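To whoever is on call:

I kicked off a structure prediction for a single chain this morning and the downstream step that reads the tokens threw a length-mismatch warning. I double-checked the sequence; it's 385 residues and nothing unusual in it as far as I can see. Pasting both halves so you can look.
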Amino acid sequence: MMIKRLFLGEKEIILVGTAHVSKESITLVEKTIEEENPDVIGVELDKERLAQLLSGKKWQETNLVEIIQTGKTYLFLLNVLLSNMQRQLGAQIGVQPGAEMLAALKKAQDKKTPIRLLDRDVKITLKRAFNSMSLTEKAKLGGSITAGFFGAGEKIDAQKIEELKDSDMINHLMKEMGKQFPSIKRVLVDERDSFISEMIKHSPGKKIVAVVGAGHLEGIEENLKKNKKIDLNQISSVPQKKNLLKKIGLLIPLLLIALFGYGLFTKGIETTITMLVYWAIITGGLSALGALLSKAHPFSILAALFSAPITTIHPALAAGWVAGLVEARFNPPRVIDFEELPNVNTLMGFYNNKVTHILIVAALTNLGATIGTIIAFPALMSFLA
């Protein structure tokens, strides 16, 4: 049974470890709250996830222009993948994701017991995780999630979910995750264990039932037993990451100016013009190829072709922005496309839904432009040899 009972001074803490798509977890939560009759009920949620759980994700409020312009295209698509994976798993087992949290909220409402939100802001968690990940970890994670989403890997059923709640199995999985994705485990698991345990320590009342994911149970218990001071401000901020790609982006215009200037003075105007043409063909061509592979509108492909040679030398612009915005103009998403986002569960579904399609256009166009930039530099330098 995934229940831990601890005492911290005069405070009694009952930790209930759950799986987010488990019928047994719902029963366990309801039974524990009923029997313990706590002063406070804590749940592993923050304000945003609580609102999503109560009302459903309001995809209609998604600002596509902001997502494209702030470079969050990949993060948004990843969020859709993760949400839909959990929803598919819940559908297989017949349990709504987060149903045990809803059960705890319902019990709190019935018994008029105060609710304590224990988790860190999900946006901060995702930003800290994304900023801390290495390029290798991002590639591994993207591959694993995509493979799982489109049906690869072991089929998970209700029995497997309950087996995964075994403490030894959870500890094993946590260790494996630490080996494969050390940065992700530190942010998504270890930091949140610290945050949740600190929120539990400072919750009002003498008895609290805290409903948390089974994977957090050991870490929270360890933190509470040690009773060490956690700096919530430190793990609730998003540190600025030293972004090597951003620095390279700032260097590209300077390097290009230097190359073209050197070519002009040493090889003459004709060679310089040829270099400019090659730059336009390579960056524009590969950017347009990315748009073509995303099944973009012809005008979006043209936008990628003509914008990439300019945007690739401007650190504040991106060809994907231009192509994505043009795509939105000629293939604007409908309300039904936003409403159908939770049901996008195939590769063709991602292409056919106009919301995800626009973001795929932006993402692949940017990828093509980046590859074009990498290829174009050696090509330009060959003219100066």
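Update from on-call: the warning came from a stale cache, not from the record. Cleared it. Sanity check on the structure: The chain has two domains: 3-235, 244-382.
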